[in-house]
Design a protein that fits this description.
Blueprint: E1 7-12, E2 15-22, E3 38-45, H1 46-55, E4 60-63, E5 65-67, H2 70-82, E6 91-93, E7 100-106, E8 109-115, H3 123-126, E9 133-139, H4 146-153, E10 157-161, E11 183-184, H5 188-195, H6 200-207, E12 213-217, E13 223-227, E14 232-236, H7 249-263, H8 267-281, H9 294-307, H10 310-315, H11 319-322
Parallel strand pairs: 1-4, 1-9, 2-7, 5-6, 9-10, 10-11, 11-12
Antiparallel strand pairs: 2-3, 7-8, 12-13, 13-14
Helix pairs in contact: 1-7, 5-6, 7-8
């Protein structure tokens, strides 16, 4: 890997348009209409991770498929011009409509409805020649993308994420690509299902045998992790905020972990910073639109310091050293 990589972080994955309705009084019922008190629209899917990385100051490259419809043009313009993300390895496909997800947020969570057609080309084709990078992000499937091994061989740290298995199989085969990864960042339900364990701690122990950096997220309850490269273990509490929409919070957490790891922060500080960024993101509708930048982090720290909360002042004192 060259001394000056093409980008700091490279990503490839499925891109969606998210339309988020917040503040619903209850789930929709057949034959009835309900009104939401909030609405957000923006690029979703892998874009949540990419936007979060870029807003934290990391040069970010994305390989994804875009349609040439209104939503495709909107997403391309938002990511390239609005967020400064390198789309040189992305492609626009005439006649292919962008996948769209509607998120309905109520009772502290959200339900998702998605429409989309298969990508016109395999994502592997878009990322076949990855740029030189310090880190990469991959969404695990049973088929390991060929570019992941290239990044790892060149010295880049590969951070892996996964998602819900609608079939309920939770095949351990999906974890085989972790052999080429530096980190794995599942939530506790995914971690326990894939490792066939009963607690987040037990799942973490199993995953720590597979990757140098194993992290299990627990939503509002915080996160726990093991970093074999530094010999650290850590478990931190979550932050209590008024949640409007949790869409993309896991991606924001992961992006903050990438940023902290590349900066060499202590493991506990990385977890707290990731919890903070994820917590700030759920205060507004949509994943990418509500992702915090450094100004938002600084604003939270300024307001928190003014309250004089001794626990938060102690736990987040490291922000004084890292805020730009």
């Amino acid at each position: 890997m060259s001394d000056t990589p093409d980008v700091d972080v490279f990503l490839s994955g499925l891109l969606f348009v998210d339309v988020v309705f917040t503040g619903l009084p209850q789930a929709p019922e057949l034959g009835k209409e309900i009104w939401s008190d909030g609405l957000g629209t923006g690029p979703g899917g892998i874009a949540n991770f990419a936007v979060a990385l870029s807003r934290l100051g990391l040069r970010t490259g994305l390989a994804a498929a875009f349609g040439d419809d209104f939503y495709g043009r909107y997403c391309w313009e938002t990511l390239e011009s609005g967020e400064g993300i390198d789309l040189s390895r992305s492609r626009r496909f005439p006649g292919w409509p962008m996948p769209v997800t509607a998120a309905l947020a109520y009772d502290g969570d959200r339900a998702l409805v998605t429409h989309g057609l298969d990508s016109p080309v395999p994502l592997d084709d878009l990322a076949a020649s990855p740029p030189s990078c310090r880190a990469a992000v991959v969404h695990l499937t049973e088929h390991e993308p060929t570019w992941v091994r290239e990044v790892a061989k060149a010295g880049g740290k590969v951070f892996a994420d996964t998602g819900w298995d609608p079939a309920g199989a939770w095949s351990p085969r999906l974890l085989e690509p972790l052999a080429d990864c530096h980190a794995f960042l599942p939530n506790e339900h995914e971690a326990m299902a894939y490792t066939r364990t009963g607690t987040a701690g037990q799942a973490l122990s199993r995953l720590a045998d597979l990757v140098p950096l194993a992290v299990v997220t627990r939503g509002a309850a915080g996160a726990l992790a093991v970093d074999a490269t530094t010999g650290e273990t850590a478990q931190v509490d979550g932050l209590h905020v008024t949640a409007v929409d949790p869409t993309g919070a896991g991606d924001v957490f992961g992006a903050a972990m990438v940023a902290g790891t590349l900066s060499g922060w202590p493991l506990a500080d990385r977890l707290r910073f990731a919890n903070l960024c994820a917590a700030l993101s759920v205060r507004g509708p949509g994943g990418a639109p509500s992702t915090p930048d450094w100004a938002a982090v600084a604003g939270w720290w300024r307001d928190t310091s003014a309250t004089g909360d001794p626990d938060l002042s102690r736990d987040y004192a490291f922000l004084d050293d890292i805020l730009p």
